Amino acid sequence: MFQTFEDKANPALGIERAAKLREELKRRGLDGFLIPRADEHQGEYVPPHAERLLWLTGFNGSAGMAIVLKDRAAIFVDGRYTLQVRGQVDMDTFEPKHLMDEPPARWIEENLPKGAKLAYDPWLHTIDAAARYKKAAEKAGGELVAVDTNPLDAVWADQPEPPVAKVVPHPLDVAGEAASDKIKRIATALMSEDADAVVLTMPDSIAWLFNIRGADVPHTPLPLSFALLHEDGHADLFIDERKLDGEARAHLSGIATLYGRDDLGAALDALGRAKKTVLVDPATCAAWIDARLKAAGAEVKRGNDPCELPKACKNEAEVNGTRAAHLRDGRALTKFLAWLGREAPKGGVDEIAAAKKLEAFRAETNELRDLSFDTISGAGANGAIVHYRVTEATNRPLKPGELFLVDSGAQYRDGTTDVTRTVAIGTAGAEERDRFTRVLKGHIGIATARFPEGTSGAQLDAFARMALWKSGLDYDHGTGHGVGSYLSVHEGPQRISKMGHQPLKAGMIVSNEPGYYKPGGYGIRIENLCVVTPPAPIEGGERMMMGFETLTLAPIDLALVEKSLLTAEEVDWLNAYHARVREVLSPGLDAETKAWLETATRAI
């Protein structure tokens, strides 16, 4: 299996480990330390040896940070994890804070003693983040100090070794563009930035640019590495060469010069000695790289990672690949939902059993490379924990009269999927049906949106919330995130959220996932992936409009739909969506599942 359900959280360990870290800080003459949930590449998923926040605190969410001072400590998490953090972390050792409402920089200003030396590992913080914390420390009358070696690593006795997973070429039939052509395209863009070179630090950008994939982090096929791209089109790849076999070397030999991972510093020094202008992305590049370039004499220019936007705009082969992946995935998910409909009302199905069964159905496709994240399998009150991860300790049975939320996804060679369905186990109550239908209205609002070029996700976000807002309800996460092509399930720069200011462009894949969560009661989320369509005319209209093509194919639970709350247009959309699901998924399904699908997708 690609996921486990061990309960690794032990809040008591945080007491002992924080004490050891404080002893090490004292030995080094330091008064505090910043512990982000990050590695040198600032990605969402990190390898085991970089799970420093988890080791120290017990918190296993995908975003967060801790600050340890001599006499106090805090842990910062966003709205997805405010419930989870209290169950995983010792609250007497680490005071929980909301990452947005009470950001770390403000906490530093208010709690760092005057004259204190607050340490940070410059490999684990972006240029922007380091600048914020430096300013906050100075406002408090203290100092932010970069360390050469990480003090937490010094007390983590059984820290795993860095990964050396094999690099695999990503074939042209699914990539849709040769790596050599991508390199020329990005180098041309680099010249327009008046830069001599760019440092690429995001592994998904490197994987996309060089048409390679790997397995260095959980659930995302990334080869951890760094790259330099020069304005003349020459590329350098810095990677642990143990990851490269003959096939990978042959693929890379014509498009990049290969160096060891530890050769990056010398290459940055050479750029500095030559007085080159080097582009770095301050939102993703480690502060260490910025400091090394400046110390060597380079002119550092700040700008966006030049691969990020081209990577987000999928080409025809990538869009066709993700359509094929969703067709395959939709059949697996439909088999699961049919099984769930038969077995859950009988009792005996719990969250772990459901997650295992869903993964098994995906494995039956013989195309599954990995899950795209640990399955969120939440029954009853656990469904209200937005990024809940079931463990043997939290495992809960699926009970009649409750809701079950399952958010899952898969990595296939031709695409990445992410889909959430909320299912009534038995008969749902009136409140649950009302909330579900309001979430569905928001989902349809995004799915049917038409908008002119230049429209951002922030402008569309309210479409998903309006029906909830009218009843005084809301949810505390974004409505949609970008998704990669056999890459990260969370990809930028596109998103549908209050902070989503990147204009949506044709070929971008985004999720459409409004929700509602009642702490202690239940959670509801309906998620499909969509691809942004090119501008097209509307009959009788005056301007070309973009829109969304829904990619995900899976039934939406009609037992939770309160038809009286839907408009005629919304009913038409739901019926048309279900008719399409039934038509395209039925071929290849067994007779029992096909019969279930007929009922599940009936017109209302």
Automatic annotation (TrEMBL):
Domain Peptidase M24 C-terminal span(s) in chain numbering: 545-604
Keyword field contains Mitochondrion: no
UniProt keyword terms in alphabetical order: Hydrolase, Metal-binding
InterPro entries in UniProt: Creatin/AminoP/Spt16_N, Creatinase/aminopeptidase-like, Creatinase_N, Pept_M24, Pept_M24B, Peptidase_M24_C, X-Pro_aminopeptidase_P
Gene Ontology annotations for the cellular component aspect, listed alphabetically: cytoplasm
Domain Peptidase M24: 322-533
Ranges of residues in domain Creatinase N-terminal: 17-148
Pfam families given in the database record: Creatinase_N (PF01321), Creatinase_N_2 (PF16189), Peptidase_M24 (PF00557), Peptidase_M24_C (PF16188)
Keyword Transferase: no
GO MF entry, a single one: metal ion binding
Record-stated family: Belongs to the peptidase M24B family.
Entry protein name: Peptidase M24
Source organism per UniProt: Parvibaculum lavamentivorans (strain DS-1 / DSM 13023 / NCIMB 13966)
Lineage of the organism: Bacteria, Pseudomonadati, Pseudomonadota, Alphaproteobacteria, Hyphomicrobiales
